[in-house]
What we know:
- The protein is mostly helical.
- It has 2 domains: 1-31, no CATH class; 36-105, no CATH class.
- It has 6 helices and 2 strands, in the order ααααββαα.
- A two-stranded antiparallel sheet has the order 1-2.
- A hairpin with a 2-residue loop joins β1 and β2 (74-75).
- The N and C termini lie far apart (47 Å).
Amino acid sequence: xxxxxxxxxxxxxxxxxxxxxxxxxxxxxxxxxxxxxxxxxxxxxxxxxxxxxxxxxxxxxxxxxxxxxxxxxxxxxxxxxxxxxxxxxxxxxxxxxxxxxxxxxx
Length: 106
């Protein structure tokens, strides 16, 4: 006996949800936000001389998966906000993209 209801035909998603997922994948969009630690690695690859005020926050970001995590007594959100406040000297296309990605997580 097969179950061909609309929910099972699209893996538990509605047709509209399924179509949106397929569209995002086809356009190269991510379905889930990246981890803060993976973003921190990309920042270090791009920003060759990290401003000293941003260094402790960037280091803390390496231990965070999301802004909902804590780093010692600080929230992930406060770590990311403090990083952004100290990242004014980091410029360029990659900097704009990553800063926007971090702000979208807040």
